[in-house]
Design a protein that fits this description.
alpha+beta; seven-stranded mixed beta sheet; four-stranded antiparallel beta sheet; about 35% helix; about 25% strand; binds adenosine-5'-triphosphate
């Protein structure tokens, strides 16, 4: 890899044009566009093992992507320095250096000496502050896109090492396959995917701070831990009820006391035919697994009506 000097799009395009000179006049020399979808995740199981000296927590989780996604369109133009601009269809999403997409592009630029003007259009569909890794998955999409746009010879493993600097869920989002997640979330082992089913996702209109949830969790005093190893086996056997019966999230010990609606939505999902229902991540999103599409759609409609929620979706594992 060329690490001695700045790499701009010019390097990429000159190489391409060298390969096919007949396109010299027609194609834009100094601009490139790329669109990527960034998928939401849920935690089929979430266990917290201990609080570490550095304040992070050691976790043991099963992560699964769902067919609910943001769409990111990247446009890159040649420039002498690296500049980044971002636009989003939802006004409440920050479009400056606080955005994880911005941070990913800046980190890639710094690490691989990239130049150019990068503009990103974000269509936001994943609920925000929901426990579905919305920001982290956009961040992962930005890492992948930058690698492709600049033709970088960088492995997923390398991207994951960079990604963990920006968030514990980012390495998983870069990997984007059903996985056992350990350490602070950066030690990932691929496991068998969730069998075909329908996943109803419901985001209550309450705001839950991830920091607050972890600070109020008494990790060393937890009475019960999810059977994560049993879930890995059930996944391997394609046993949906075996997976569903082991769904558990220890962070609910904090959130359901503070926000009873989380428990109520779980119960409504189960009464409406879900194999099981739990909270995802640090919440407040609740999700339930259904074997039949019609049952899932009826349950989603019931939750919309009963709780007056707009962010309720019928999704599938992907
Ligand atoms: P996690 O499941 O990883 O805990 P989350 O669902 O709790 O994530 P996000 O949706 O990622 O939370 O957003 C948390 C905050 O991060 C938002 O309030 C927002 O200000 C900021 N943010 C930064 N980048 C993004 C992004 N690309 N999309 C949405 N929010 C972002």
């Amino acid at each position: 890899r060329d690490t001695d000097r700045s790499r701009g799009l010019g390097d990429v395009y000159k190489r391409q044009i060298g390969n096919s000179g007949k396109n010299r006049k027609e194609r834009p020399l100094r601009m490139k566009t790329l669109t990527r979808n960034a998928y939401a995740k849920v935690n089929l199981a979430l266990d917290v093992l201990r609080r570490r000296e550095d304040g992070y927590h050691d976790v043991c989780m099963i992560m699964q992507n769902l067919s609910l996604y943001d769409t990111l369109t990247f446009t890159v133009e040649e420039a002498d320095t690296l500049t980044i601009t971002l636009a989003c269809d939802k006004a409440f999403v920050p479009c400056d250096a606080r955005n994880l997409i911005y941070k990913a592009i800046a980190l890639m630029g710094e690490t691989y000496h990239l130049t150019g003007h990068v503009h990103v259009e974000l269509v936001k569909r994943i609920p925000v502050e929901a426990g579905m890794a919305g920001g982290s998955t956009d961040c992962a999409a930005a890492f992948h896109a930058m690698r492709e746009l600049y033709g970088l010879d960088v492995s997923d493993q390398e991207l994951m090492k960079l990604g963990v600097k920006l968030g514990a869920d980012v390495p998983y989002c870069i990997m984007a396959k059903t996985a056992l997640s350990e350490g602070i979330g950066e030690v990932l082992t691929e496991v068998a995917p969730l069998p075909d089913c329908f996943v109803v996702v419901a985001k209550p209109t309450i705001s839950v701070s991830t920091k607050m949830v972890y600070e109020n969790l008494h990790a060393n005093e937890l009475q019960h831990h999810p059977d994560v190893a049993g879930m890995v086996d059930a996944l391997k056997q394609g046993d949906l009820s075996g997976v569903a019966s082991r769904m558990e999230n220890v962070l609910e010990t904090v959130t359901t006391k503070l926000y009873p609606q989380i428990e109520e939505i779980k119960q409504t999902m189960k009464e409406s035919g879900a194999e099981n229902a739990i909270m995802s991540g640090s919440g407040p999103t609740v999700f339930g697994l259904y074997t039949e599409k019609a049952t899932a759609e009826q349950a989603a409609e019931k939750i919309r009506q009963q709780y007056g929620l707009s962010e309720v979706y019928v999704t599938q594992p992907c």
